[in-house]
Amino acid sequence: MAIRKQIYTWELHGDGGDGSSLVNYPRAGESHSILWGPYGNVQAGRQTGLIKENEFVVIEKIASTPGISANSFQITGVAPNRQLTTWRPNMFINLVIDTTNYYQDPQNVWASGVSGTASPYPQMTIDEPYYDLWPPVYVLPHQTVDIRYTLFNDIQLSAAAGSWDIIPQETIMAAVYVEYTLYDGTDAMMAQKLLQVGIPVTVGTIENYRRLLLEQKGLETDTFQHYLKLMESERERKKKEDKNQGVARYTKYGDGE
Amino acid sequence: MSLRRQCYEWRNIVESAGDTVFLNGYPVNWTGNVDTVGFAANQPVDIFVGGIGNNIDIPGQLKAYQYVVIDAVAVYPPTLHAQIYVNTTKYFQDPDNVPSRNGGISGFTAPFPQGASFVTTAGSIVNIMNYDFKDGLKPAIIIQPGQNWGVEVTSSVAVPSIANTATGNQINKCFVKYLLIDGADAIVARRLLDAGWPLSVENVWKYKQDIIRSHLYAGLAPLPEEVSEAKRKV
Lengths: 257, 234
Fold this sequence. Notes:
A: 12 strands; B: alpha+beta; 6-stranded antiparallel beta sheet; 4-stranded antiparallel beta sheet; 16 strands; 15% helix
């Protein structure tokens, strides 16, 4: 399984309380990681994404919960049992490779990223994304990748405003979706090779490169002769070049040179 | 990261009632505290430095090693229009060659988000789709190093200020998406423009492939005979 399409989703659910918890919900305006941050269903090890030396990652899509106004929430029931069913987090997501933020604003400084309104998750028929992560983002071996979200609608202050009584655990307060292709093993090596020669790293180009390599496996006599001739002519050319540049020595070419 | 798909989103929201602008980011709001800033009909508002909603400190200006390809702009509500400008030139113009009097492309044509709901005068709710400019402006707008650029929004009806109670569809929005080309890729972009090629991700990639290929071939090719067979001069 050397080429695998991967998805990673992060979700922040209600805690069954009234929403005032500082432990279970992030404050608005703060940036947190979906991989190792203190909120939501992050990875158990709480580690940022480190790409191993035999891996190559191409991030193709990032999306998050849409919605802007905190007033566009929905509840069911009556006081004192009003349950929050829909919440608009007004969230943005950013990609961070090592120490570099992907998104910057027109004055060339750090920006919050792309909003859930521009790139929504889940995607509904009336909610088509405007934003498309093209070209995709390559994460090379030994680089770290992090995906950070920022909510701009404050859950605790909204809870204090008394608009609901309970946030049930079924209510999704915020979510992030990341889609990427993981190349590992020999495919990661091929990805590196394609990168070196400026060819985009896609499933198609890797498979094509693999086909080319397999075609060359087990050289025919004619092919061997062809490469031998090429190498000989290259050696001859190098010899002439050294001679012209004055770097040829008799120890290399014998007394006759 | 020299080819990056960037976006900028403007809303006429502020942090507190009475504010007109929020600089360098987005304001924090909560239920019962979502305030919008009103502006007059037919009054152009710069989404970067117009003094209304979320702004940045300085207008968009490209550095010597940057190119920007603006490929999409969208607005909401449908009565809002967006006009892209580069230095002193405005993109959308009327047939008499005067900059668009409406203020550019409207939210009826390019709604944000795609499928945004709109209440008609008859009271029914419809979802507006962007079919004509779904893939952005063709050809895209290219901003060159040193040029100023920005987007102005103009509403054909007066936009009222709303204290505390603004909901999603009462917020005026403008979204602009662009490709930022910087660093070594900006040099490639310059070469492409000089040769008359459209500035796209694929063309930048292709040009770089050609450079690498020609370098590889240059390394393999034998020297011309007049060089390889020439007598040593020293």
